[in-house]
Protein 1
Amino acid sequence: MNHVILSFIRDLTISRRIVRLWSMEFTQSMPFRVSYWAPLCTFALVSIALYVRLLFLIYKRRRTQQYSSFFYKMFFIGGLFDILSVIWYILAQWVYVDQIFGSSFLLTINYDNIPNMCYYYVYYFLYAQIFIILLVSANRLVAIHFPLSRLLSSCDSFPILFLFLFTLLFPILITLHFFWQPPIEFRANAAGAVGRWVHPDTTKANAIHAMCVVVLSTIFSALCYLSVMRKLAQLNSKNKTDRNHSRKWRQELSITIVGFATFLALCSATAYFSASYVAVMNNNNNSTLLETLRSLNIIHYFAMAFVNPWALLVTSATMRKRSNNSLLGSIVDSAARKNASYSANADEALVNSHAPPSDRRKLSRDNSQRSHDLHLQLPDIVKDYISRLPEDCAREIFKCLNIHHLDVLKCTSQRLHYLSSVFRNSVQKANAIELEVFKTINGDRFVDLVREAPFLSECFMHESSGASQMIEYDRVKPYDLWMLDYKASNADMSLIIRRAAFLMSRYRCDVVRFTSVLIDDNFVTEFSRVWQGKSMKRLLMLNLLLSAKPTVLHLDARAIIKEIDEPFLRSYAQAVTGPQLFARSPTKKPFTVSESFSTILSSFDSLVMDRLQVGADWIMSAILNRLKRRRSGSISCAITSVIYRPEIVDRVESVDSDVEYVSFEGRCVLRLKDTEFYADIKTTEGKPCRLHVNFSIRAKENVTPRQEAPISDIDVSDAIAHRCAEYPGKDTQFCNVHDIGPARIGFARSIKVDTSTGSGSRVSKIFLIISTIIASLMRYANT
Amino acid sequence: MVLITLVSSDEQNFPVERELLKQSGTIETLIVNMNLDDEDTDAAAMPIPLPNVKGDVLEKVIQWMEHHKGDPVKEGDNEDNNAEIVVPQWDDDFFKPAMYGSKHLELTVAASYLDIKNLLTLSCKAISNTFKGKTGPQIREEWGVPNEFTPEEEEAIRKENEWSE
């Protein structure tokens, strides 16, 4: 042993002589320093193997939340640089210091920047490592101080390729001045010894540059870690129990320690370059101090390169466990376990055992206390089975819970928090009667949820003791009016929309009512976004897709200032069971929708609009599409004002050019039964203006309409139609309209009814509009 | 009585009545695919390997199936979420000894793997019952779940939950 040590010291002394080559002091070629390189190479090989193992583990788990963090990405990139730099360093030392290929070989490679590469690689890798340390320091600062910040999540989401390229380019950017420095050469002196020649000005300039970079980086890094330590100390004193239980906290602490260890390695580099700077500035290029420093540069070089894997292995029990397959990992793990006096088996046995909960709690407390005493030996081997359940099993469990249980469950662990968010729609929703945005009470607007009172059943049982009380109870709405504590007028619209969407995710509402909502771009954007659950996943970790659709969605837009956009209406229509579009405009401006809305409008069961521009083909196609898709469905159209714009009048053959507009008040229900459409018209006044119309869209050659309908009805309808056709422009009065019954008006395309006089004017208007619609329908069907 | 042999992951053999195995969708599919129902096929000579189920867990599953022999097999997955499921007393006693441990959860996972819907439903219901009326720390203690949240995260979740109250 003594012999080995003495041999190492002798070779180190030789090394000190050799480094004089740097300053143009040539020596004769030396034999390869076996005793010098043997321990260093052994350490380097073991460290590189460990490093590769850790990098492989990180790469395998790169999709997980933990290992996709910014720290591990930089760890991975730094690992590649560290391994490459060490290999390069050793090979370069062998070639031009130990001269394993002989001195003449150096002279043969004295071109193509190879000497430059043998000199500058030190700085390149040094600056790359410093860059990584700086980034990790900043990341630790943010992670500890602002663990929920957007900046941290943004850092974590950086692509690793981007970070790698940035790390690759950064050292080049700050070493651009190297390109203008005198070239480095291998030269032979008079005695025949070959060595590397560096211009003294280059040495001086680079010493100053390196010293500045490392000192500034060290100061920045030191400030970051000081702040981090201060915060950790605060957390430590604030809540010791939580600190010890928190796996996340331990992970953060572990990687902070790794970052700090790297910072210490940077400090050693700072010390080295500062001392070199002092020596160079004092023109002591050949001084003993400089020689000694240069002989020790391998220390900071290896420290910078290998501090990361060893520090991570020592501080992270998870990493030790995962690298346990390797011999080294086992050795380190066992040593760490011995030091920590902690038995993994004990804990496993604790969880696996069928001991009563009270005993387990006691043991758990003991272990927590023990882990608290161990400080940095933080075990991470508690068997948390419930958090490791497969997702399909978790979903089955959540089905048996309601939303309030889920709120509790998601506080327990990260995994359950995640699962609670994913399967939020699988859980039992509370029933609610109505959600209204906004409820106006005394001039203030609220988001109201009308739900069943939780005490309803008890209350009912109590009240049902007497028959009279029971009846009284039925008259009173047994609901609990739930009122939000803030006023809509003072609240941010997006907050209100999110609130509404949040409630819809928690309650199965029979009716969701939006009343007096200003539908503008903000509303549409916010609601569409919330509906798709994109923003909520981030902010509230909720999935807002409804598992049970409300039966009616009632959009009462009293102040439509802009066109409702297509995606909004589509998601609206798709999200509810019986969608109604109820749009009212107080202004003269009609509710206008673009032609592309035809498919969307066909998604609605009911279109209730006071002013709607119709008459174009697309509205007909929308209705037809709807009816064809839902063979037994119906569309309720309550259009109180229909405007035929002059430019589309020519498309409606049944309307004469001198009709500017027609309007009616009533309800038109178009139904499809078998192959026949039925138009059921009801006026708001009810009885006196009731008219049923049915018609066929079959091809004429295949239809025998007279045989399908009662003869009396056909006669009446034919008579009306022919009468109207024979006397266009004449006053027509309809009396006792409800007696007419079904009328076949399919061919009555050219009816013109003067609507100015007579008690039947309203019916005439209805007749006209229906005939127009049906004519268009038939034309569409024929085409 | 036709016996079909099930082989657990630790190479234990369990001869089980054909009738019992109808409760398991996975095994039923295997039996049909392997034509074990055919009279010409020697079912005893063709054991069914279940590499994802340990012997002790499979034993419990068979025990449960024996007790529930003849029960209607639940089909489909569209039942109403809000329907209240009651765990019968026998099943409650069956699950209780292994509750809060890995065995119960392994049983649940096995039920999911073997596609035994009734067992899965009851097992999950039994697990969910342990969550009801408990606070987060209580659940953590009972199930050995470590607290992984920083104080800031806990505060954020608390605020998140306040939306509903």
Protein 2
Amino acid sequence: MTTATQTIEQFANKEYEWGFVSDIEAEAIPKGLSEDVVRLISTKKKEPQWLLDWRLKAYRYWTTMEEPRWWPNVTFPPVDYQNMIYYSAPKPKKQLKSLDEVDPEMLKTFEKLGISLDEQKRLTGVAVDAVFDSVSVATTFRGKLAEMGVIFCSFSEAVQNHPELVKKYLGSVVPYNDNYFATLNSAVFSDGSFAYIPKGVRCPMELSTYFRINAKETGQFERTLIVCEEGAYVSYLEGCTAPIRDENQLHAAVVELVSVGEGSQIKYSTVQNWYPGDKDGKGGIYNFVTKRGACRGRNSKISWTQVETGSAITWKYPSCILIGDDSVGEFYSVALTNHKQQADTGTKMIHVGKNTSSTIVSKGISAGRGQNTYRGQVKVLKGAENARNYSQCDSLLLGDKCGAHTFPYIEVKNTSSTVEHEASTSKIGEDQIFYCKQRGLSAEDAVSMIVNGFCKEVFKELPMEFAVEAKKLLGVSLEGSVG
Amino acid sequence: MFTKLFAPFDRDATPRYRALREEARARFATLPLPTVRSEDWRFTNIAPLAETSFELPNALMESGPAAPKNKLQFHFLNGRFAPAISSPVPSSISIGSLANAPSSLPLVGKIADVRANAFTALNASFVADGLYVTIPDDVILETPIEIIHYARSDEKPVVIQPRTLIVIGKNARATVVERYFGGQTYFTNAVTEITLSDYGVLDHVKVQEESVSAYHIANTQVVMAAKSNFTTHYLSLGGALVRNEVRVRFDGEHAEATVNGLYLADGKQHMDNFTVIDHAQPNCASHELYKGILDGKSHGVFNGKIFVRKDAQKTDAKQTNKVLLLSDDATINTKPQLEIFADDVKCTHGATIGQLDATQLFYLQSRGIPLEPARRLLTFAFANDIVNRVKIEAIRAEMETRIVR
């Protein structure tokens, strides 16, 4: 075994650093899912009748659906949907105006993660809507945002305070009957974030939410809705970490983005580092997420950037429906699978309007016994004249027990469009490591550096703070085989 | 609906392959015909085929001129071998109807697995006739072997089940051309099994010019031993609903496969190209290039799979699909996929879909060539890229004239 391989092995066997359980009393309802549970969630959240009706419609449809099982390189034991708690809120539930009122235990948790609210507030000017389990407990900078007419609050608050907006846009991009997990989410979603950027406003700061799955055996069903009016711009950050668990936890979130007006822009960035399970793949989060954005306005733009390093299984296809003429969709992704992690991720770009364009850059890194699949669809409808797509999917294999797979689906229905897809697979060469070592770098640093270089195109799309975090995360999660 | 044909078929078929037929029929009974719900068939709806009632074909008169002396032509009329109009077989090689195949040829049905695919099982349910080609060790055959299938329905649509077995010995080398054409509505369900021994070389060409209302489903399965070399060119021109499957498996190291295809579709033609390259052994190379030109309301499908098995290190696999859409009513679905389980490999794939390059058109126009001829010239060049790779001069010439039209 070469030194480089040894280093990588050591790297690979690193334990998950962010695993700890913070002891906060949680208010949960009994396990199981039924119509009563859906009603109970709705009642607890004091929701209007129309939302309950929508939830019930989704629930009833869900009972007729089958759990999807057709992915060739993803396997997992059956999920017992009746053995889960569908709602959990941290106990101290009163409205908080400042950080002083936040449970000190919770603040400590955030500090351990290096994302303490004070820190964020003071240093970066990021408004943080921290979702601790399922209910938002602290919202900062809201005053400042309100001045500009930007609404940024938890989903439940939005239901209470801006029901007309929620009613108009909820389910307009991801309908209640979209897919198994989105339908489940529609029935039982607990909370999430809501953002509304009015006409002509450029959101002055990056909006950010930190999700954290905390209570034991709680499936987390977040719902995020972002609406951007004519000429408005917003950049939204989402980052996740979770403590070590024995049982697999299901996370079925739904994110809907609507670029309504002409020239509106939404940038959505994710760093996902949920517990991936231990070396043998025990535990770990099932991340079955539906993310979709609709570019309705002329010249509007939606950009997805994701760095996926966590979760036992990642199933996620942030998509863009390009309806408005000249609208733009982008997808930049880094997905890393390690140990026994499985990822099946990619995007869908549906070109409906004229002169629409989309770019897909996907970087997959497989290590250990990880299975990494890119699955993406580019669909150009007949009316989408002069549509343009460029896709690039690169895979890096570290080790001979992992897998990297590419499944692009391309459909074109007119003559004026151009679609290009390119994919390559490579590994880190012994010579590359040797060169770096010869220049005085350790093998470990060399691997980290090469992988970071491999992902550069995606990292440059991330907002500053995130890019730093993502690089660190990759360094920690890294492992591989060299030659 | 095919099951009612089993009994009449057995009445005048050789009992020789009865065991294989029975096995395949038992299997066929359990395999539903594929639908678009199956991932491998999601872009090809075979409903029109499944809803047609097919009959067993009538024997056609063996008429026509005898095969030219300098050629090796083997004719099949409605799925039956026609020795009277076929060439005599040189003594160095062995070719003939499967019904009379030497008992030392136990490979029939061993390469194309009846368990996996309903249409392969269907073909094997009717195995009796067909052609076997054996090139013994160290024999180098310069003359291309042409296998010509002609099908015709007189009243009701018929189904023919061509079956070919090609065995290339050690250090042997041969060229085989398969040709399919016919008249009216009929269904060709072809299976071709190919095996190459160490250092064997096979250059395979398939010219598919079925009638415009015919159904054509073909499965070509290739198993390659160490250091062998296989090249195929699939040239698809005819048929209403066409599905060409090519499956290549590397069974030894240092083998090399080239799988190229050209599909030209117009009107309401549907052409599905499905390829699987299975890198089961290390140090093998595969190159795949498919090009399609779609006009009218045609529908093209390309689904290429490359598997690189665990430990198949030093694999070099390349896969490209390029499509030219000439009509706004034409549709292309392409799905070039890679599944890689080894790390020391070089795998790339690419797909492009588009139209003629505007700058190239402009350049030609600036040299005084009007737009329409310039278009035709560039379309021709696009298709000819594949044709030029065919090693047989006669086929190149023939295809070039076909493309010009």
